[in-house]
Amino acid sequence: MRQITVYTTDPCSFCVRVKNLLAARGFEYAEINLSKDPAGRAELAKLTGMMSFPQVLVDGELLGGYADVLAAAESGRLDELLAA
Asked: What ranges make up the beta strands (E) of the chain?
C-alpha cells in the first residue's frame, strides 16, 4: 500500500474531516501536526509550495486539501490511487 502523509494543524475542522474520510475508507496515514512540529512547516512548503491545511500527500506527491481528497473519493480516483 502507498504511504499517505497528512499535514494538519490545531484547530482545523477540515483536518479532522480529511482524517475521518481516510479512516472511514480504511486507509492508514502518517499525520504531521504542524502546531506541534514547527519544522514540518518548512518541509511542507518545500514539498508542495503550500501552507494551507490540511495537505495530503501520497508517496510524496501532493493530492491536495480536503476538497481535493473528497472529490477524489467521490469519483473513485482515491481508491484507484491508493490501490496502485
From this structure: 4-8, 30-33, 55-58, 61-64
Residue 1 in this model has a pLDDT that exceeds 80: no
Collapsed DSSP state (helix, strand, coil) of residue 7: strand
What residues does 4 pair with on adjacent strands? 58
What end-to-end distance do the CA atoms of the chain give, in Å? 7
pLDDT at 13: 97
8 Å CB contact between 63 and 56: yes
Host H or E run for residue 65 = none
| CATH number given to 4-83 | 3.40.30.10
Give the SS3 label for residue 61: strand
Q: What is the pLDDT of residues 19-70, one digit of tens each?
A: 999 999 999 999 999 988 878 888 888 888 888 899 999 998 999 999 999 9
